[in-house]
Protein backbone atom coordinates (compact mmCIF):
# COMPACT_ATOMS: atom_id res chain seq x y z
CA UNK A 1 0.00 0.00 0.00
CA UNK A 2 2.79 2.44 0.95
CA UNK A 3 4.65 1.88 -2.30
CA UNK A 4 1.59 2.70 -4.36
CA UNK A 5 0.74 5.90 -2.44
CA UNK A 6 4.21 7.43 -2.52
CA UNK A 7 4.24 8.40 -6.26
CA UNK A 8 0.75 9.82 -5.84
CA UNK A 9 1.86 11.99 -2.91
CA UNK A 10 4.99 13.14 -4.80
CA UNK A 11 2.85 13.93 -7.83
CA UNK A 12 0.43 15.92 -5.72
CA UNK A 13 3.24 17.88 -4.02
CA UNK A 14 4.83 18.74 -7.38
CA UNK A 15 1.46 19.87 -8.78
CA UNK A 16 0.79 22.12 -5.77
CA UNK A 17 4.34 23.52 -6.00
CA UNK A 18 3.81 24.32 -9.70
CA UNK A 19 0.47 26.03 -9.10
CA UNK A 20 1.94 28.08 -6.23
CA UNK A 21 4.96 29.17 -8.29
CA UNK A 22 2.76 30.17 -11.27
CA UNK A 23 0.61 32.18 -8.87
CA UNK A 24 3.70 33.85 -7.37
CA UNK A 25 5.07 34.78 -10.81
CA UNK A 26 1.74 36.30 -11.94
CA UNK A 27 1.43 38.24 -8.68
CA UNK A 28 4.99 39.53 -8.98
CA UNK A 29 4.36 40.81 -12.50
CA UNK A 30 1.17 42.56 -11.43
CA UNK A 31 3.01 44.22 -8.56
CA UNK A 32 5.69 45.47 -10.91
CA UNK A 33 3.08 47.09 -13.13
CA UNK A 34 1.49 48.74 -10.09
CA UNK A 35 4.81 50.07 -8.84
CA UNK A 36 5.59 51.56 -12.23
CA UNK A 37 2.25 53.36 -12.50
CA UNK A 38 2.51 54.65 -8.94
CA UNK A 39 5.86 56.20 -9.70
CA UNK A 40 4.56 57.96 -12.78
CA UNK A 41 1.83 59.81 -10.93
CA UNK A 42 3.93 62.04 -8.64
CA UNK A 43 6.21 62.92 -11.55
CA UNK A 44 3.22 64.11 -13.56
CA UNK A 45 1.89 66.00 -10.52
CA UNK A 46 5.17 67.85 -10.08
CA UNK A 47 4.60 69.80 -13.26
CA UNK A 48 1.27 71.13 -12.02
CA UNK A 49 2.63 73.64 -9.55
CA UNK A 50 -0.40 75.87 -9.84
CA UNK A 51 -2.94 73.20 -8.95
CA UNK A 52 -4.44 73.85 -5.52
CA UNK A 53 -3.59 70.96 -3.20
CA UNK A 54 -7.13 70.53 -1.90
CA UNK A 55 -8.77 70.61 -5.35
CA UNK A 56 -9.07 66.85 -5.99
CA UNK A 57 -10.78 66.18 -2.63
CA UNK A 58 -13.58 68.63 -3.44
CA UNK A 59 -16.72 67.01 -4.75
CA UNK A 60 -17.37 68.12 -8.32
CA UNK A 61 -21.11 68.41 -7.63
CA UNK A 62 -20.45 71.03 -4.96
CA UNK A 63 -19.04 73.58 -7.40
CA UNK A 64 -19.62 77.20 -6.54
CA UNK A 65 -22.12 79.13 -8.57
CA UNK A 66 -20.74 80.41 -11.90
CA UNK A 67 -20.65 84.06 -10.82
CA UNK A 68 -18.33 83.09 -7.97
CA UNK A 69 -15.73 81.52 -10.27
CA UNK A 70 -12.85 83.81 -11.20
CA UNK A 71 -12.15 84.45 -14.88
CA UNK A 72 -8.80 83.67 -16.55
CA UNK A 73 -7.35 86.83 -15.02
CA UNK A 74 -8.43 85.89 -11.50
CA UNK A 75 -11.26 88.43 -11.32
CA UNK A 76 -14.89 87.63 -10.48
CA UNK A 77 -17.08 88.53 -13.45
CA UNK A 78 -20.28 89.77 -11.77
CA UNK A 79 -18.57 91.42 -8.86
CA UNK A 80 -20.01 94.62 -7.51
CA UNK A 81 -17.56 97.05 -5.94
CA UNK A 82 -18.06 97.35 -2.18
CA UNK A 83 -18.87 100.47 -0.24
CA UNK A 84 -16.70 99.38 2.70
CA UNK A 85 -13.27 97.69 2.85
CA UNK A 86 -13.13 94.08 4.12
CA UNK A 87 -11.61 93.30 7.50
CA UNK A 88 -11.21 89.66 8.58
CA UNK A 89 -10.34 89.24 12.27
CA UNK A 90 -9.33 92.88 12.26
CA UNK A 91 -6.98 92.45 9.29
CA UNK A 92 -7.64 94.54 6.20
CA UNK A 93 -7.62 92.41 3.06
CA UNK A 94 -7.39 93.64 -0.52
CA UNK A 95 -7.19 91.15 -3.36
CA UNK A 96 -9.11 90.12 -6.49
CA UNK A 97 -11.91 88.63 -4.37
CA UNK A 98 -12.07 91.48 -1.85
CA UNK A 99 -11.65 94.83 -3.61
CA UNK A 100 -11.56 98.24 -1.95
CA UNK A 101 -14.12 101.00 -2.52
CA UNK A 102 -12.97 103.85 -4.78
CA UNK A 103 -13.69 106.17 -1.85
CA UNK A 104 -11.27 104.32 0.47
CA UNK A 105 -8.29 106.66 0.84
CA UNK A 106 -6.53 106.02 4.16
CA UNK A 107 -3.16 107.45 3.00
CA UNK A 108 0.03 105.81 4.19
CA UNK A 109 -0.28 103.94 7.50
CA UNK A 110 2.04 105.64 10.05
CA UNK A 111 2.68 102.41 11.98
CA UNK A 112 3.66 100.63 8.76
CA UNK A 113 5.94 103.50 7.77
CA UNK A 114 7.65 103.48 11.18
CA UNK A 115 8.21 99.70 10.96
CA UNK A 116 9.53 100.13 7.43
CA UNK A 117 12.00 102.81 8.53
CA UNK A 118 13.24 100.58 11.35
CA UNK A 119 13.67 97.69 8.94
CA UNK A 120 15.59 99.83 6.44
CA UNK A 121 17.83 101.14 9.25
CA UNK A 122 18.60 97.61 10.44
CA UNK A 123 19.33 96.50 6.87
CA UNK A 124 21.78 99.38 6.53
CA UNK A 125 23.63 98.18 9.65
CA UNK A 126 23.94 94.79 7.95
CA UNK A 127 25.30 96.45 4.80
CA UNK A 128 22.14 96.48 2.66
CA UNK A 129 20.88 99.77 1.29
CA UNK A 130 17.16 99.15 0.91
CA UNK A 131 14.56 101.64 -0.28
CA UNK A 132 10.78 101.58 -0.62
CA UNK A 133 10.27 102.95 -4.11
CA UNK A 134 6.48 102.61 -4.06
CA UNK A 135 4.02 102.81 -1.18
CA UNK A 136 0.52 104.21 -0.83
CA UNK A 137 -1.37 104.61 -4.08
CA UNK A 138 -4.75 106.28 -4.36
CA UNK A 139 -7.56 104.71 -6.38
CA UNK A 140 -7.09 107.30 -9.12
CA UNK A 141 -3.34 106.78 -9.34
CA UNK A 142 -3.85 102.99 -9.61
CA UNK A 143 -6.33 103.66 -12.44
CA UNK A 144 -3.68 105.57 -14.39
CA UNK A 145 -0.97 103.01 -13.65
CA UNK A 146 -3.07 99.98 -14.64
CA UNK A 147 -4.36 101.60 -17.83
CA UNK A 148 -0.79 102.37 -18.90
CA UNK A 149 0.27 98.74 -18.31
CA UNK A 150 -2.72 97.47 -20.33
CA UNK A 151 -1.76 99.77 -23.19
CA UNK A 152 1.82 98.48 -23.08
CA UNK A 153 1.38 94.72 -22.49
CA UNK A 154 -2.31 93.95 -22.98
CA UNK A 155 -4.87 93.23 -20.29
CA UNK A 156 -4.09 89.54 -19.65
CA UNK A 157 -0.39 90.25 -19.03
CA UNK A 158 -1.10 93.38 -16.99
CA UNK A 159 -3.52 91.46 -14.77
CA UNK A 160 -0.73 89.12 -13.70
CA UNK A 161 1.50 91.84 -12.24
CA UNK A 162 -0.67 94.90 -11.75
CA UNK A 163 -3.93 95.27 -9.90
CA UNK A 164 -7.02 96.86 -11.40
CA UNK A 165 -8.15 100.02 -9.60
CA UNK A 166 -9.75 99.05 -6.27
CA UNK A 167 -7.87 95.74 -6.16
CA UNK A 168 -4.40 97.00 -5.24
CA UNK A 169 -2.98 96.39 -1.81
CA UNK A 170 -1.10 99.67 -2.23
CA UNK A 171 -4.44 101.44 -1.71
CA UNK A 172 -4.43 100.14 1.88
CA UNK A 173 -1.38 102.24 2.80
CA UNK A 174 0.14 99.07 4.28
CA UNK A 175 2.14 97.79 1.30
CA UNK A 176 5.55 98.76 -0.03
CA UNK A 177 7.63 97.81 -3.04
CA UNK A 178 11.20 97.47 -1.85
CA UNK A 179 14.49 97.36 -3.73
CA UNK A 180 18.16 98.10 -3.35
CA UNK A 181 19.68 101.53 -3.90
CA UNK A 182 22.09 101.43 -6.84
CA UNK A 183 20.49 98.27 -8.23
CA UNK A 184 17.47 99.88 -9.83
CA UNK A 185 17.70 97.48 -12.75
CA UNK A 186 16.57 94.73 -10.35
CA UNK A 187 13.58 96.65 -9.01
CA UNK A 188 10.33 94.79 -9.72
CA UNK A 189 12.20 91.66 -10.83
CA UNK A 190 12.26 88.12 -9.45
CA UNK A 191 16.08 88.38 -9.38
CA UNK A 192 15.94 90.87 -6.50
CA UNK A 193 14.76 87.98 -4.30
CA UNK A 194 17.95 86.08 -5.07
CA UNK A 195 20.33 88.92 -4.19
CA UNK A 196 21.83 89.07 -0.67
CA UNK A 197 19.73 92.19 0.01
CA UNK A 198 16.54 90.49 -1.18
CA UNK A 199 17.37 87.41 0.89
CA UNK A 200 18.03 89.52 3.97
CA UNK A 201 14.67 91.22 3.49
CA UNK A 202 12.85 87.91 3.08
CA UNK A 203 14.53 86.47 6.18
CA UNK A 204 14.04 89.49 8.45
CA UNK A 205 10.84 91.24 7.31
CA UNK A 206 8.60 89.34 9.76
CA UNK A 207 10.58 90.69 12.73
CA UNK A 208 9.40 94.14 11.66
CA UNK A 209 5.83 93.05 10.91
CA UNK A 210 6.08 92.57 7.15
CA UNK A 211 5.26 89.58 4.95
CA UNK A 212 6.28 88.78 1.40
CA UNK A 213 2.75 89.13 0.08
CA UNK A 214 2.97 87.22 -3.23
CA UNK A 215 5.33 84.25 -2.72
CA UNK A 216 6.51 81.80 -5.36
CA UNK A 217 4.03 79.11 -6.46
CA UNK A 218 1.11 80.73 -4.64
CA UNK A 219 -0.41 82.51 -7.63
CA UNK A 220 -3.49 80.25 -7.46
CA UNK A 221 -4.14 81.57 -3.94
CA UNK A 222 -3.01 85.21 -4.06
CA UNK A 223 -4.00 85.90 -7.67
CA UNK A 224 -0.59 87.35 -8.44
CA UNK A 225 2.68 85.96 -9.71
CA UNK A 226 5.73 85.92 -7.44
CA UNK A 227 6.71 89.47 -6.44
CA UNK A 228 10.03 89.42 -4.60
CA UNK A 229 9.68 93.15 -3.89
CA UNK A 230 6.13 93.57 -2.54
CA UNK A 231 5.84 93.55 1.27
CA UNK A 232 2.69 94.04 3.33
CA UNK A 233 2.58 95.22 6.93
CA UNK A 234 0.48 93.00 9.22
CA UNK A 235 2.31 93.46 12.55
CA UNK A 236 5.02 91.23 14.01
CA UNK A 237 2.73 88.64 15.62
CA UNK A 238 0.85 87.72 12.45
CA UNK A 239 3.91 88.18 10.23
CA UNK A 240 5.87 85.65 12.31
CA UNK A 241 3.01 83.13 12.21
CA UNK A 242 2.66 83.46 8.43
CA UNK A 243 6.43 83.13 7.95
CA UNK A 244 6.72 80.11 10.27
CA UNK A 245 3.89 78.27 8.53
CA UNK A 246 5.09 79.33 5.08
CA UNK A 247 1.56 80.37 4.11
CA UNK A 248 -0.11 83.37 2.45
CA UNK A 249 -2.29 86.03 4.07
CA UNK A 250 -5.31 84.44 2.37
CA UNK A 251 -4.51 81.06 3.96
CA UNK A 252 -3.92 82.67 7.35
CA UNK A 253 -7.31 84.39 7.19
CA UNK A 254 -9.01 81.29 5.74
CA UNK A 255 -10.14 83.00 2.52
CA UNK A 256 -7.96 81.14 0.02
ZN1 LIG B 1 3.56 96.30 -4.91
Explained architecture:
The protein is an alpha+beta fold and 256 residues long. It has two domains: 1-33; 81-253, Muramoyl-pentapeptide Carboxypeptidase, domain 2. It is 43% helix and 9% strand. It contains eight helices and six strands; from the N terminus they run αββαβααβαβαβαα. It has helices spanning 2-46, 110-125, 139-153, 155-161, 196-204, 219-222, 236-245, 249-253, and strands at 86-88, 91-93, 130-134, 175-180, 210-212, 230-233. The protein has a four-stranded antiparallel sheet. Helix 3 (139-153) packs across helix 4. The longest helix is centred in the first third of the chain and has 45 residues, at 2-46. It is globular, with a radius of gyration of 29 Å. Zinc ion binds next to strand 4.
Overall structural domain count: 2
Helix and strand composition category: alpha+beta
Our measurement of the CA-to-CA distance between the termini, rounded to an integer number of angstroms, reads 82 Å
Task: Estimate percent helicity.
Answer: 40-55%
Keyphrases for this structure?
9% strand, 6 strands, 8 helices, binds zinc ion, alpha+beta, 4-stranded antiparallel beta sheet
